């Protein structure tokens, strides 16, 4: 675990005191503690809430690329004023106890044909916000709040995306924001609430988290992450979720309750350290590929190492390098073989072990983990009628380990 921690913690020291993280129109001094919340809405739309700690020295805009359907109109995005709930993420976090834990054709901002009208600016609490339907529409924004066109040339996947642009309303001259946009303005301290908006998703079967970093006008293959991602999902996804689950459902929230679903669980995942520089998706298809549900147990195929970067800068154990190379197809084969073997064993031994039908909402199911040199730790979740004895635990553990050994051999 020491080697793994070193890999995840690498890159924390900054070589310069001026570093741009996420997508900002100008360099900023520091960004950390990024928090993002996503929730599906009716009609294939999504709510996204974004907060962070960032220090600036001049007017600057935060630019968030979003995967809207191509050709979305300028009114496709609805901005949400969270000024009444500046502690949105603090509330969410209280529900989570600490875990046991090559450029393509240019599509820059050239203006073509007749002069274009300026984009609508929305008054959203402490921010002014605009939706930019395409990269070419950035020409309709103040030049201070654009990214250079060659940045978009490095990000060809965003050619048909839209962009939300947020600018903090100035009050004097802001010098820094702290704690989910908390700021200091010439002797006074300002706390600025998170940004929020609703948008139509190009893929309604996935939740989107904007996590690409643009550093000093350049896009690098890896980036230094310090992100906590939160979400609520469709009810059908809940038995499949492999993120940390909240201790209570959304009904336990107070101020944040207006923007969450009270009858569903919340989930959290942390991205920290040097990781591939890309956006994050939570897709139903991937959740289903990595989960098998039985009447008496759940098999969870884990891929905790897939986000590590084997770039030679950090020593990795040989078995970790093997685990990183396990393909999704291999995981599916192991999942199916393990599920088939365990179904037969549990059908015979469930009564003797005191196993009861598996329900994902049951707070008392037990995790049995198994791994070997060929596959990283995987999980089988089992619910018992009563606390299992040490002998029962040992017997179930042996059965689970043997199943994974045979399936991955």
Model description:
This protein is of the alpha+beta class. The chain has two domains: 2-279, no CATH class; 292-408, no CATH class. Helix content is 19%, strand content 27%. It has helices spanning 2-9, 88-93, 149-153, 284-289, 318-324, 328-353, 390-408; strands at 30-40, 45-55, 61-66, 78-79, 122-124, 127-132, 162-168, 174-177, 182-185, 188-191, 195-200, 206-209, 222-231, 244-245, 267-276, 280-283, 291-293, 298-300, 366-370, 378-382. A seven-stranded mixed β-sheet has the order 4-11-2-1-13-15-14. A four-stranded antiparallel β-sheet has the order 3-7-6-5, with no helix packed on it. Helix 6 packs antiparallel against helix 7 (390-408). The chain is globular. The model is unreliable at 1-21, 100-115 and 173-190 (pLDDT under 50).
Q: What amount of the residues lies in strands?
A: 25-35%
Domains (count): 2
Number of helical segments with 4 or more residues: 7
Give the mean pLDDT.
80
Terminus-to-terminus distance: 24 Å
């Amino acid at each position: 675990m020491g080697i793994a921690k070193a890999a995840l913690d690498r890159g924390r020291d900054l070589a310069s005191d001026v570093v741009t993280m996420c997508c900002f129109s100008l360099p900023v001094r520091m960004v950390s503690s990024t928090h993002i919340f996503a929730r599906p809405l009716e009609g294939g739309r999504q709510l996204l809430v974004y907060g962070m700690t960032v220090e600036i020295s001049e007017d600057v805009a935060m630019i968030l690329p979003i995967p809207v359907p191509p050709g979305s109109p300028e009114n496709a995005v609805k901005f949400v004023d969270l000024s009444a709930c500046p502690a949105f993420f603090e509330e969410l976090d209280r529900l989570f106890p600490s875990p046991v834990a090559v450029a393509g054709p240019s599509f820059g901002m050239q203006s073509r044909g007749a002069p274009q009208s300026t984009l609508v600016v929305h008054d959203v609490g402490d921010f002014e916000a605009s939706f930019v339907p395409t990269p070419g529409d950035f020409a309709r924004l103040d030049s201070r709040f654009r990214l250079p066109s060659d940045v978009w040339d490095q990000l060809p996947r965003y050619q048909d995306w839209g962009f939300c642009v947020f600018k903090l309303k100035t009050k004097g001259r802001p010098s820094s924001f702290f704690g989910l946009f908390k700021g200091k303005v010439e002797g006074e301290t300002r706390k600025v609430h998170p940004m929020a908006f609703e948008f139509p998703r190009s893929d309604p079967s996935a939740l989107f988290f904007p996590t690409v970093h643009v550093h000093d006008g350049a896009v690098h293959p890896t980036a230094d992450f310090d992100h906590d991602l939160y979400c609520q999902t469709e009810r059908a996804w809940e038995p499949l979720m492999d993120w940390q689950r909240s201790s209570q459902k959304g009904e336990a929230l107070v101020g944040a309750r207006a923007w969450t679903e009270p009858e569903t669980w919340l989930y959290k995942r942390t991205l920290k350290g040097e990781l591939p520089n890309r956006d994050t998706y939570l897709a139903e298809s991937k959740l289903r590929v990595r989960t098998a549900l039985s009447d008496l147990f759940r098999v969870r195929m884990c891929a905790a190492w897939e986000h590590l970067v084997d770039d030679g800068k950090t020593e990795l154990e040989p078995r970790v390098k093997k685990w990183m190379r396990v393909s999704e197809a291999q995981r599916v084969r192991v999942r199916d073989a393990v599920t088939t073997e365990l179904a037969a064993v549990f059908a015979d031994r469930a009564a003797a072990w005191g196993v009861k039908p598996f329900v994902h909402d049951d707070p008392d199911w037990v995790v049995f983990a198994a791994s070997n040199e060929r596959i990283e730790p995987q999980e089988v979740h089992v619910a018992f009628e009563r606390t299992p004895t040490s002998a029962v635990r040992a017997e179930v553990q042996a059965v689970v380990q043997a199943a994974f050994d045979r399936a991955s051999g």
